[in-house]
Amino acid sequence: MKKETLTIEELKEKFGPLYKLEVPMSDDTTTELILKKVDRKNFDIGSKIIQKNEMQGVEFFLNSLTVKGDPTPVIKDFDALRSAAELIIEIISVKTGNVQKL
Fold first, then answer.
1. Are 11 and 20 in contact (CB under 8 A)?
2. 5, 6, 56, 76: least surrounded by Cβ within 10 Å?
3. What architecture is domain 8-91?
4. pLDDT at 31
5. What are the pLDDT digits (tens) for 19-32?
6. Is the pLDDT of residue 2 over 60?
7. Would you tell me how many other CB atoms lie within 10 Å of the CB of residue 83?
């Protein structure tokens, strides 16, 4: 799967906030992927997939959010995919604020 060949700055201008995932592979190497921030459409689709099959949901997010790098080796390596699942949670999780009763 071919992804963007733009520089990080050009990708930031095009997609907004970016995240770098350094995913450990089974062969003791590391694969680096640059992902864009999840949008509502991808979040909705990915969340429904994750409810039925977590690894398929992670695969969906890797394919839909990666803007630089190739997610295919990560997807094909089960241990790497499990590691990516832990990393993706930080990108797709909701940031919490504070609620105060006044």
1. no
2. 5
3. 2-Layer Sandwich (3.30)
4. 96
5. 999 999 999 999 99
6. no
7. 21
Q: What band does 66 get if pLDDT is binned at 50, 70 and 90?
A: very high
Give me the residue label for tokens 């050009």: 10
Residue bearing tokens 């992927």: 33
DSSP characters over 14-78? HHSSEEEEEEEPTTS-EEEEEEEPPPHHHHHHHHHHHHH-HHHHHHHHHHHHEEES--HHHHHSH
Ranges of each domain in the chain: 8-91
- CB of 66 closer than 8 Å to CB of 28: no
**Alpha-carbon span 41 to 32, nearest angstrom:** 25
* Alpha carbon distance 45, 80 (integer Å): 22
